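Thread: Modeling a multi-component assembly for a lab meeting

Hi all, long-time lurker, first post. My supervisor asked me to bring a structural picture of a complex we are working on to next week's group meeting, and I have zero experience with this. I have the sequence lines for every component (255 residues in total). Could someone generate the structure of the whole assembly? Inputs are pasted exactly as I received them:
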Amino acid sequence: MSRSITLTLKIWRQTGPEAPGRFETHRIGPISTDLSFLEMLDVLNEELTLAGKTPVAFDHDCREGICGMCGAVVNGEPHGPQPATTLCQLHLRHFKDRQTIVIEPFRARAFPIVRDLVVDRTSLDAILISGGYISVNTGGAPEANSIPVPAARAEQALDAAQCIGCGACVAACPNAAAMLFAAAKVSHLALLPQGEPERTSRVRTMVAAMDGAGFGNCTNVGACAAACPKQISLANIARLNREFLRAALAPEDGG
Ligand code: SF4
Ligand code: FES
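Re: Modeling a multi-component assembly
Sure thing. I ran the full set together rather than chain by chain. Output:
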Protein backbone atom coordinates (compact mmCIF):
# COMPACT_ATOMS: atom_id res chain seq x y z
CA MET A 1 0.00 0.00 0.00
CA SER A 2 1.28 3.42 -0.93
CA ARG A 3 2.31 5.76 1.91
CA SER A 4 4.40 8.87 2.29
CA ILE A 5 7.66 8.90 4.19
CA THR A 6 10.32 11.38 5.14
CA LEU A 7 13.95 10.34 4.88
CA THR A 8 17.34 11.68 5.88
CA LEU A 9 19.90 11.02 3.14
CA LYS A 10 23.62 11.04 3.85
CA ILE A 11 25.11 11.11 0.37
CA TRP A 12 28.77 10.91 -0.66
CA ARG A 13 29.82 14.00 -2.60
CA GLN A 14 33.14 14.16 -4.44
CA THR A 15 33.88 16.52 -7.32
CA GLY A 16 36.51 14.35 -9.02
CA PRO A 17 38.80 11.31 -8.72
CA GLU A 18 41.48 13.14 -6.74
CA ALA A 19 39.21 15.54 -4.80
CA PRO A 20 38.48 14.87 -1.13
CA GLY A 21 35.00 13.45 -0.53
CA ARG A 22 32.49 14.01 2.25
CA PHE A 23 28.96 13.09 3.26
CA GLU A 24 26.27 15.68 2.64
CA THR A 25 22.96 15.44 4.54
CA HIS A 26 19.58 16.13 2.94
CA ARG A 27 16.03 15.75 4.23
CA ILE A 28 13.55 14.55 1.63
CA GLY A 29 9.80 14.10 1.87
CA PRO A 30 7.02 13.57 2.40
CA ILE A 31 7.64 11.33 -0.62
CA SER A 32 5.57 8.41 -1.96
CA THR A 33 6.84 4.90 -1.28
CA ASP A 34 5.74 4.06 -4.84
CA LEU A 35 8.86 5.85 -6.08
CA SER A 36 12.00 3.93 -6.92
CA PHE A 37 15.30 4.77 -5.25
CA LEU A 38 16.56 6.50 -8.40
CA GLU A 39 13.31 8.47 -8.72
CA MET A 40 13.91 9.67 -5.17
CA LEU A 41 17.36 10.88 -6.27
CA ASP A 42 15.67 12.58 -9.26
CA VAL A 43 13.36 14.43 -6.84
CA LEU A 44 16.32 15.43 -4.68
CA ASN A 45 18.24 16.63 -7.74
CA GLU A 46 15.29 18.73 -8.85
CA GLU A 47 15.20 20.37 -5.43
CA LEU A 48 18.97 20.95 -5.51
CA THR A 49 18.81 22.41 -9.02
CA LEU A 50 15.96 24.76 -8.08
CA ALA A 51 18.01 25.90 -5.09
CA GLY A 52 20.96 26.65 -7.38
CA LYS A 53 23.03 23.75 -6.04
CA THR A 54 24.87 20.99 -7.91
CA PRO A 55 22.78 17.83 -8.37
CA VAL A 56 24.09 14.45 -7.20
CA ALA A 57 25.80 12.52 -10.01
CA PHE A 58 24.67 8.89 -10.25
CA ASP A 59 24.76 6.27 -13.00
CA HIS A 60 21.64 4.82 -14.60
CA ASP A 61 20.29 3.89 -18.00
CA CYS A 62 17.52 1.29 -18.48
CA ARG A 63 16.03 1.54 -14.97
CA GLU A 64 14.67 -1.96 -15.64
CA GLY A 65 17.39 -4.07 -14.05
CA ILE A 66 18.95 -5.14 -17.33
CA CYS A 67 21.78 -2.77 -18.33
CA GLY A 68 24.05 -2.87 -15.25
CA MET A 69 24.64 0.89 -15.21
CA CYS A 70 23.10 1.75 -11.84
CA GLY A 71 24.69 0.96 -8.51
CA ALA A 72 25.55 2.48 -5.18
CA VAL A 73 26.11 1.18 -1.68
CA VAL A 74 22.97 1.80 0.40
CA ASN A 75 23.36 1.41 4.16
CA GLY A 76 26.43 -0.75 3.56
CA GLU A 77 24.88 -3.00 0.91
CA PRO A 78 25.60 -2.73 -2.84
CA HIS A 79 22.23 -2.11 -4.57
CA GLY A 80 20.57 -1.80 -1.16
CA PRO A 81 18.74 -4.15 1.19
CA GLN A 82 16.51 -6.12 -1.21
CA PRO A 83 17.99 -9.42 -2.44
CA ALA A 84 18.20 -9.98 -6.22
CA THR A 85 17.30 -6.34 -6.91
CA THR A 86 19.24 -3.66 -8.75
CA LEU A 87 19.24 -0.13 -7.33
CA CYS A 88 16.92 1.04 -10.12
CA GLN A 89 14.38 -1.63 -9.17
CA LEU A 90 14.56 -0.88 -5.45
CA HIS A 91 11.48 0.95 -4.17
CA LEU A 92 11.01 3.23 -1.19
CA ARG A 93 8.41 0.87 0.29
CA HIS A 94 11.38 -1.09 1.67
CA PHE A 95 12.36 1.84 3.89
CA LYS A 96 10.80 3.15 7.09
CA ASP A 97 9.46 6.62 7.79
CA ARG A 98 12.20 8.89 9.24
CA GLN A 99 14.93 6.39 8.36
CA THR A 100 18.46 7.60 7.69
CA ILE A 101 19.93 6.21 4.47
CA VAL A 102 23.67 6.34 3.82
CA ILE A 103 24.45 6.32 0.08
CA GLU A 104 28.03 5.76 -1.12
CA PRO A 105 29.68 4.86 -4.43
CA PHE A 106 30.97 1.34 -5.11
CA ARG A 107 34.41 1.39 -3.50
CA ALA A 108 37.29 -0.56 -5.08
CA ARG A 109 40.79 0.31 -6.27
CA ALA A 110 39.80 -0.80 -9.78
CA PHE A 111 36.74 1.51 -9.73
CA PRO A 112 38.06 5.10 -9.41
CA ILE A 113 35.38 7.62 -8.43
CA VAL A 114 34.41 9.90 -11.31
CA ARG A 115 32.04 12.10 -9.32
CA ASP A 116 29.72 11.57 -6.32
CA LEU A 117 28.17 8.10 -6.83
CA VAL A 118 29.61 7.54 -10.32
CA VAL A 119 32.58 5.19 -10.59
CA ASP A 120 34.65 4.18 -13.61
CA ARG A 121 34.00 0.47 -14.27
CA THR A 122 35.96 0.16 -17.50
CA SER A 123 38.19 -2.35 -15.67
CA LEU A 124 35.29 -4.81 -16.04
CA ASP A 125 35.12 -4.00 -19.76
CA ALA A 126 38.85 -4.80 -20.04
CA ILE A 127 38.18 -8.32 -18.71
CA LEU A 128 35.31 -8.80 -21.11
CA ILE A 129 37.18 -7.45 -24.14
CA SER A 130 40.12 -9.78 -23.41
CA GLY A 131 38.11 -12.95 -24.05
CA GLY A 132 34.35 -12.61 -23.74
CA TYR A 133 33.58 -13.41 -27.36
CA ILE A 134 33.27 -16.32 -29.79
CA SER A 135 34.79 -16.52 -33.26
CA VAL A 136 32.51 -19.11 -34.84
CA ASN A 137 29.88 -17.96 -37.29
CA THR A 138 26.71 -19.29 -35.69
CA GLY A 139 24.60 -18.62 -38.79
CA GLY A 140 20.84 -18.29 -38.65
CA ALA A 141 18.73 -19.60 -35.78
CA PRO A 142 18.51 -23.39 -36.12
CA GLU A 143 15.42 -25.44 -35.33
CA ALA A 144 15.30 -25.53 -31.52
CA ASN A 145 15.27 -29.31 -31.11
CA SER A 146 18.35 -29.73 -33.31
CA ILE A 147 20.68 -27.78 -30.98
CA PRO A 148 22.96 -30.40 -29.40
CA VAL A 149 23.16 -28.82 -25.93
CA PRO A 150 21.68 -30.75 -23.00
CA ALA A 151 18.92 -28.71 -21.33
CA ALA A 152 20.62 -28.67 -17.91
CA ARG A 153 23.85 -27.35 -19.45
CA ALA A 154 21.99 -24.70 -21.44
CA GLU A 155 20.23 -23.59 -18.23
CA GLN A 156 23.57 -23.25 -16.42
CA ALA A 157 24.98 -21.22 -19.33
CA LEU A 158 21.94 -18.94 -19.40
CA ASP A 159 22.06 -18.48 -15.62
CA ALA A 160 25.69 -17.33 -15.93
CA ALA A 161 24.80 -15.12 -18.91
CA GLN A 162 22.45 -13.14 -16.68
CA CYS A 163 25.41 -11.15 -15.30
CA ILE A 164 24.80 -7.49 -16.19
CA GLY A 165 28.33 -6.31 -15.32
CA CYS A 166 27.18 -3.94 -12.57
CA GLY A 167 30.20 -4.48 -10.30
CA ALA A 168 28.24 -4.98 -7.07
CA CYS A 169 30.19 -8.22 -6.50
CA VAL A 170 33.44 -6.21 -6.49
CA ALA A 171 32.00 -3.59 -4.12
CA ALA A 172 30.75 -6.29 -1.72
CA CYS A 173 34.02 -8.24 -1.65
CA PRO A 174 36.44 -7.33 1.19
CA ASN A 175 39.27 -7.96 -1.33
CA ALA A 176 37.51 -6.05 -4.15
CA ALA A 177 37.87 -9.15 -6.33
CA ALA A 178 36.09 -9.50 -9.67
CA MET A 179 36.00 -13.30 -9.59
CA LEU A 180 32.21 -13.66 -9.74
CA PHE A 181 31.99 -11.37 -12.77
CA ALA A 182 34.87 -13.12 -14.60
CA ALA A 183 33.49 -16.53 -13.59
CA ALA A 184 30.07 -15.70 -15.02
CA LYS A 185 31.61 -14.61 -18.32
CA VAL A 186 33.97 -17.60 -18.58
CA SER A 187 31.22 -20.04 -17.56
CA HIS A 188 28.52 -19.03 -19.94
CA LEU A 189 30.81 -19.51 -22.94
CA ALA A 190 32.69 -22.57 -21.60
CA LEU A 191 29.39 -24.40 -21.15
CA LEU A 192 28.29 -24.01 -24.79
CA PRO A 193 29.76 -25.65 -27.92
CA GLN A 194 30.00 -22.21 -29.57
CA GLY A 195 32.55 -21.19 -26.92
CA GLU A 196 34.76 -24.25 -27.42
CA PRO A 197 37.32 -22.84 -29.96
CA GLU A 198 38.57 -20.17 -27.51
CA ARG A 199 37.86 -22.16 -24.33
CA THR A 200 41.51 -22.43 -23.25
CA SER A 201 42.79 -19.04 -24.39
CA ARG A 202 39.69 -17.29 -23.01
CA VAL A 203 40.19 -18.28 -19.40
CA ARG A 204 43.91 -17.47 -19.62
CA THR A 205 43.39 -13.98 -21.04
CA MET A 206 40.42 -13.10 -18.85
CA VAL A 207 42.22 -14.10 -15.64
CA ALA A 208 45.31 -12.17 -16.77
CA ALA A 209 43.16 -9.11 -17.57
CA MET A 210 41.49 -9.37 -14.16
CA ASP A 211 44.87 -9.53 -12.40
CA GLY A 212 46.16 -6.61 -14.46
CA ALA A 213 43.18 -4.36 -13.75
CA GLY A 214 43.90 -3.99 -10.03
CA PHE A 215 41.21 -6.28 -8.60
CA GLY A 216 41.97 -8.20 -5.41
CA ASN A 217 42.23 -11.95 -5.00
CA CYS A 218 39.26 -14.18 -4.24
CA THR A 219 39.39 -15.78 -0.79
CA ASN A 220 35.98 -17.49 -0.99
CA VAL A 221 34.16 -15.06 1.31
CA GLY A 222 30.94 -15.33 -0.74
CA ALA A 223 29.84 -11.71 -0.20
CA CYS A 224 29.82 -11.28 -4.00
CA ALA A 225 27.05 -13.81 -4.61
CA ALA A 226 25.00 -12.44 -1.70
CA ALA A 227 25.12 -8.94 -3.23
CA CYS A 228 24.60 -9.98 -6.85
CA PRO A 229 21.27 -8.69 -8.19
CA LYS A 230 21.22 -11.50 -10.75
CA GLN A 231 21.97 -14.25 -8.22
CA ILE A 232 25.06 -15.46 -10.07
CA SER A 233 26.10 -18.61 -8.21
CA LEU A 234 29.46 -19.24 -6.51
CA ALA A 235 29.48 -22.51 -8.50
CA ASN A 236 30.68 -20.37 -11.41
CA ILE A 237 33.83 -19.46 -9.45
CA ALA A 238 34.50 -23.16 -8.92
CA ARG A 239 34.03 -23.66 -12.67
CA LEU A 240 36.42 -20.78 -13.46
CA ASN A 241 39.04 -22.41 -11.23
CA ARG A 242 38.56 -25.76 -13.01
CA GLU A 243 38.75 -24.06 -16.41
CA PHE A 244 41.94 -22.25 -15.36
CA LEU A 245 43.53 -25.50 -14.14
CA ARG A 246 42.53 -27.21 -17.39
CA ALA A 247 44.10 -24.35 -19.38
CA ALA A 248 47.28 -24.48 -17.28
CA LEU A 249 47.71 -28.17 -18.20
CA ALA A 250 46.93 -27.61 -21.89
CA PRO A 251 49.67 -27.01 -24.50
CA GLU A 252 50.61 -23.31 -24.89
CA ASP A 253 48.81 -22.96 -28.22
CA GLY A 254 45.69 -24.76 -26.95
CA GLY A 255 42.63 -22.97 -28.44
S1 SF4 B 1 28.26 -11.18 -11.08
FE1 SF4 B 1 26.38 -10.15 -10.32
S2 SF4 B 1 27.14 -8.46 -9.06
FE2 SF4 B 1 28.85 -9.14 -10.33
S3 SF4 B 1 28.81 -7.85 -12.16
FE3 SF4 B 1 27.60 -9.69 -12.65
S4 SF4 B 1 25.49 -9.15 -12.12
FE4 SF4 B 1 26.76 -7.60 -11.11
S1 FES C 1 19.70 1.32 -14.68
FE1 FES C 1 19.94 -0.47 -15.90
S2 FES C 1 20.17 -2.05 -14.43
FE2 FES C 1 19.71 -0.30 -13.22
